[in-house]
Design a protein that fits this description.
Low-confidence stretches: 1-14
Strand content: 25-35%
Bound molecules: inosinic acid
Radius of gyration: 18 Å
CATH topology: Rossmann fold
Shape: globular
CATH class: Alpha Beta
Number of strands: 9
Number of helices: 5
Strand order of the largest sheet: 4-3-2-5-6-7
Mean pLDDT: 88
Distance between the termini: 33 Å
Order of helices and strands: HEHEHEEEHEEEEH
Largest sheet: 6 strands, mixed
Helix content: 25-40%
CATH architecture: 3-Layer(aba) Sandwich
Number of domains: 1
Structural class: alpha/beta
Amino acid sequence: MDSTNSALLYETERGVDAVDDVQRVLLSEEEIARKVKQLGAAITEDYQGKDLVLVGILKGAIIFLADLMREIKTPVNVDFMAVSSYAEGTTSSGVVRILKDLDLSIENRHILIVEDIVDTGLTLEYLVDILRSRHPASIGVAALLDKPDRRLVDIIPDYLGFSIPDEFVVGYGLDFAEQYRSLPYVGILKPDAYQDA
Ligand code: IMP
């Protein structure tokens, strides 16, 4: 088998495995693309002529960020932060350790944090506090998904893709145990997929 065929076979097998673990597609590729386009248009309008830095939160936001930045039709800079939240039971504690900090200075610049999902909101609240102490011109939040039922702090994304029910979702950058990030849609995992892990 030549290398093209083996690559295709590998992709197909991975795809089938991942699809088998998904109970239901919650948001299709097309729905997400439409929404990201709308968010990009709104951000373009609001940040026209401003020095905008998108801050992607690794790793979950990578696909959302990559698609969103191409829908923003005004110049942007991009930087990344990686954080790990100290868990207490199944929810985050709100104490966040910075694993990778920004490379760019954000003083007097307009910051838009790009997150995959806001759950309790504790991680985001902590991040906003850290970044605010560096004196940006403004701080906004763009989140693809929001689980309002789980919120513990009063934080609302300025740009939101979808409010979703309290279910564990994967795909389009979101993972469970580092799996499923490459699914092109957002899906709800089958309970078996949690139990096997
Ligand atoms: P929070 O501090 O509780 O808001 O945690 C937000 C983080 O938890 C997100 O950035 C995700 O990494 C993770 N998370 C929360 N819900 C989900 C989910 O349904 N699927 C995948 N990751 C999730």
